[in-house]
Amino acid sequence: MSNLGQLIEIPTHGDERGSLSVAEIGGVLPFVVRRAYWIHGTKPGVSRGFHAHRKLNQLCVCVSGSVRLVLTAGQETVEVVLNRPDRGLLIGPGVWREMHDLSADCVLLVLADGEYDEADYVRKKHELACAGSGAAGSITFGVFSEESFKMSQSWLQNEKLRHLIDAPVIIPEKQKAWFESLSERRDYFIWTVHFYGAPIGAVGLKNIADGKAEYFGYIGEERYWGRGVGGEMMEFAEKKARELGINTLELFVVAHNTRAQVLYLKKGFKIGAASDGRVKMTKKLL
Ligand code: T46
Fold first, then answer.
1. Residue span of the structural domain in which 196 resides
2. Domain count, the chain
3. What whole-number distance in Å separates Cα of residue 213 and Cα of residue 12?
4. Which end of the chain offers a freer environment for a tag, N or C, measured as fewer CB atoms within 10 Å?
């Protein structure tokens, strides 16, 4: 459907008695459920929601009646009507949700991967309006931990991402050796990109030598694409490069990834030679 939410068909067993729908791990449920709640008896004309979550993942199923959901992140908004008990909507973190037009008989069941936590709510829409979801400090950078490493392995299997960054073929044994070597290396640094503490990508500097370094970075979670996170990643990497005494940053971007090229131009990179479907870009750090 979009990066904002994913509509799923819930496997349903029907016979002469009626129907039974199932959401389970190994089936359509992508997370372990730690909480279930349901919204019902909504008064006419009442809308609900008007918030986003920092970390929570949810599966919403309108088991009775109907509801219109409006989901927004960055510049993108989608509307979806839930009115069938055999259809669900998966919503992840960083997505503003509003629920409108709940019918009198609406029962909206929500399965969530975390317990109720008020601190997980973002209640001001402007915090999600633009760059990296907007709120100062919503994007942070941290150690590339074992958890990040595991997540990166699944992110890098996403064909859309692989196409955009020309990712190399992943050989698990090599990957493990690479991860284990990180703490020793002085020519290669990688950090995790977090959205409100949840890992969403990676950024780094590699081939560090003679005052030069190569920038690399990717956002593994698709719903953060096109939301200004890339700009924050570049600013962070530049700051780190300066701290390391680097005076020239280089990067290689695939020729068809024009969105990234526009960002790098904005950040002061100059376009250099193109070869093998990749464009070299360079920036002198003053
Ligand atoms: C969401 C949408 C789809 C609890 O004490 N425990 C809970 O698990 C929940 C969900 C709520 N509450 C309390 C907090 C409030 O005092 O119940 C009250 C109503 O909650 P809220 O105003 O947040 O309800 P909605 O319909 O605006 O939003 C709810 C969920 O909170 C939210 O996670 O994504 O449904």
1. 139-284
2. 2
3. 54
4. C
